[in-house]
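Handout, section 3.2

Students often ask what a structure token actually looks like in practice. Rather than define it abstractly, here is a full record for GIY-YIG nuclease family protein. The first block is the sequence as you would receive it.
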Amino acid sequence: MREEKQPSVYILASKLYGSLYIGVTSNLVGRIWQHRNGATLGHASKYKIYRLVHFEMFGEMELAIRREKQLKNWHRPWKINLINEHNPHWADLAVGLGLPPLGKKKPPDGP
């Protein structure tokens, strides 16, 4: 079965008003899983930025990329206002997408 692509822009945060990371993907759940499981190296993994605090879905990747570039050029207070407008408690929105809450990893198999 082929996975359906859904272009998305997302903002991750390390904590309430913490470090932010903005990205674009065609598979939001898969990309968040990659961030949380160390499959991606870089700014987000270095600063443990894993909490999904905002996302926007698009019909075309070109529009998502344009929005990502726009958000990356915004001043930090504008980004914070955007998050606060839609998610004032900075809840982890990934839980609503079917991912486990942060800090609730399954124990490894074995003795």
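Discussion prompt for tutorial groups: The longest helix spans residues 61-73. How would you have guessed this from the sequence alone?
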